[in-house]
Recover the amino acids of this structure.
């Protein structure tokens, strides 16, 4: 009988022996002790401990996660519609339902809750609860204290910020939620609201592109590495030709025919980003396909798909996972660059790249460029720190030294 073939198997044997000793002392069945130990294997528990030990990456993960979760509820934080309205005894939910203005005595198809007439009508027969920021990403402030782009509100006095309202500082709309705390762009839109929505769309785009490109890249690398031979040779030549196509030029050409939206842009980027992980996965499969446990699986009659994705892939994913945070940061940077050049999301969409472009065009409004720069810098810095922590956690030398 042969012993364990790798350190993972050895860890499992040692852990089972320890559990058996604990079970014998406590007089309980081994499965109950295994359940009490949790669902993580010993090596994964060490990896998690190493990830937590990198304090910079660990705290960066929680900060980034908190920012992303907050922006997921952007409609409840920055919106030009109230969260809740009580009108003539009826509760209304403008965030979820578009009510016609005829419901409040008007005639438009969609209610403008910032209209003084609508506000007066609702306040006369009920009340409204507004979000903290009373602007959506495309809301134009018609009461700017100065021509757009307007300065941030914290650089003005209260009287300056409210001087365009009919009653000045005594106007009921002159409240903190109606002030532009990070200023406005050259269209009079609130920068803070666009920043919140832009952060969300950038991260969602990056996550989707990272997940989809990883799925395609891992599958392609697995097929190449496992079967090898002529298939691997032809696939490698295809990848070399495919990666030589300039992605930016292709997007510029396609933009001449139609305006790319979120999904079209995601599909175009996916066509060229899936190659990032092919080389890593291919190398792992080339190395693992000749291991003894793979030969034993073939001898037992297991089909190729099961061997590839149930037995070899878990070992190959160790190297793959370390690349994911860096692929995510690259995806976000790509979208930001395309939006900055004007070939990304449709005009008017909330975007960090568009905010940076606004800063470039309006040099007299430095708050635009500084806001976009610091947001992108902080986001990418957090992702780099997370990537470093993940890399340390999956580093075999550090993992086994801690064991």
């Amino acid at each position: 009988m042969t012993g364990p073939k790798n350190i993972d198997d050895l860890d499992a044997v040692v852990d089972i022996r320890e559990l058996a000793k604990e079970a014998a002392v406590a007089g309980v069945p081994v499965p109950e002790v295994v359940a009490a130990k949790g669902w993580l294997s010993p090596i994964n528990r060490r990896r998690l401990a190493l990830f937590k030990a990198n304090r910079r990456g660990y705290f960066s993960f929680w900060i980034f996660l908190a920012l992303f979760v907050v922006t997921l509820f952007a409609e409840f934080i920055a919106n030009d519609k109230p969260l809740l309205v009580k009108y003539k005894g009826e509760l209304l939910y403008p965030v979820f339902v578009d009510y016609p203005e005829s419901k409040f005595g008007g005639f438009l198809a969609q209610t403008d809750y910032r209209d003084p007439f609508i506000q007066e009508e609702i306040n006369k027969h009920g009340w409204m609860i507004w979000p903290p920021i009373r602007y959506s990403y495309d809301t134009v402030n018609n009461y700017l204290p100065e021509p757009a782009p307007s300065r941030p509100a914290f650089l003005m006095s209260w009287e300056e910020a409210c001087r365009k309202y009919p009653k000045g500082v005594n106007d009921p709309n002159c409240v903190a939620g109606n002030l532009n705390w990070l200023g406005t762009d050259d269209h009079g839109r609130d920068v803070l609201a666009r920043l919140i929505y832009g952060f969300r769309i950038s991260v969602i785009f990056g996550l989707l592109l990272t997940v989809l490109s990883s799925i395609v890249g891992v599958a392609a690398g697995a097929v190449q590495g496992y079967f090898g031979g002529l298939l691997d040779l032809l696939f490698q030549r295809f990848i070399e030709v495919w990666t030589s196509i300039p992605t930016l030029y292709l997007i510029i050409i396609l933009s001449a025919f139609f305006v790319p939206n979120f999904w079209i842009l995601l599909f175009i980027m996916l066509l060229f980003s899936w190659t990032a992980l092919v080389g890593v996965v291919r190398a792992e499969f080339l190395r693992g396909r000749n291991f003894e446990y793979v030969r034993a699986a073939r001898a037992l009659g297991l089909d190729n798909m099961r061997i590839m994705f149930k037995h070899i892939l878990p070992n190959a994913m160790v190297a793959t996972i370390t690349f994911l945070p860096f692929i995510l940061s690259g995806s976000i940077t790509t979208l930001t660059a395309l939006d900055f050049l004007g070939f990304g999301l449709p005009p008017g969409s909330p975007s960090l790249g568009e905010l940076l472009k606004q800063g470039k065009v309006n040099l007299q409004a430095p708050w635009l460029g500084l806001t976009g720069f610091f947001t992108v810098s902080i986001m990418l810095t957090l992702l780099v720190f997370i990537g470093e922590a993940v890399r340390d956690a999956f580093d075999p030398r550090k993992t086994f030294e801690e064991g």
About this structure: DSSP finds 18 helices and three strands in the chain. Residues 80-130 form one domain.
